[in-house]
Amino acid sequence: MRGWPAALIVLTLACSPVTQPTAAKSTPSPRASQSPIPGDLPLSHVSFSCRLPIFNSLDPSAVKNAFISFPSRSVTIDPAGNGGFYFDRAFSKWLPVRREAVTAAGTHYAAVLPDLKQGLPIVQIVDVASGKEVGFPIEPAANLGPRAVVVDYAPEGIYLVQAVEGPTPGMWLFDPSTGSIRVVTKVLVQVSGGGGIFWFGALNPADANPVRSRVRVESNQIWRLDLNAGREIIWVDRPGTGLNVIGIDAHGRPLTRAVHDAINYPDPTAELLLSVEDAKQRSIHKGPIAATLSGGITDDHGVWFGSPQGIYLYSDAGGLQKVSDQPGYPANGCF
Hints:
By secondary structure, this protein is mostly beta strands. It is 4% helix and 43% strand. It is built from two helices and 25 strands. Strands 3-2-1-25 form a four-stranded antiparallel beta sheet, with no helix packed on it. The protein is globular and about 55 Å long. It starts with 5 loop residues before the first helix and ends in a 5-residue tail after the last strand.
């Protein structure tokens, strides 16, 4: 039985609408987190110099788009951000979608919009340089729900999954050159690892004590899907635990958030796991901080995570470090 990944619910916030939002009337000032987590890590100094773009869509009073400069940790608000979720370095533009919906070169992005008249999805592709939009209506026979989202804009096409439980679970591949669409798997994918590798959550019904949130039963397994080899392998199996992949490191290994309580936030027994290989995990951090992390983006420095209480960086050399107390989530790597 497949579990429903909570990560996909977050994606819906980042993929609608495609049209750039209007600028806010006033710009909040940078501020440190007002909701510290018990046992939070102290701020760590980093030796490198770069700017990290961040966004914050969850707190109406928070900075929407800004850059954190390292090593000083100074925060510069970008009023041109307009509530964007991804900073496209190729064109120095904020985009209204998350990074997985943007091509590797940053030239195009995609989103799925509902056709309000017919209740069908429309895959819309936008040229970043010109802003030109092209829409592709999806026929009912595809069984793609109107609230589907992009999980990867790959060279071979655009991978789509259901943002919420739709008529048919699974993942579709849309080819913008032909307008064709096909089902590639029936599982509920959480994250793309690139190169045809995807990670998805599943529920082992033999688990006598699965973790339940207010809306669903959480996945207690993480599987690795290799489309090229046509193979699925259980990577993490933890009965009595809710699992979500929240980042992929530079070696293609998933970083998984594990919680035992999905209702009372943040779970003091939460854990961040790095999968060294299948059935073998390394514990990165234990404690409530792990329950707050999401939005992992990887670059040469490590994996950047966002949270309501600040920005964190994981690397093999430094482990998990808190590098800023500015609430937000990475909108690209640090450059």
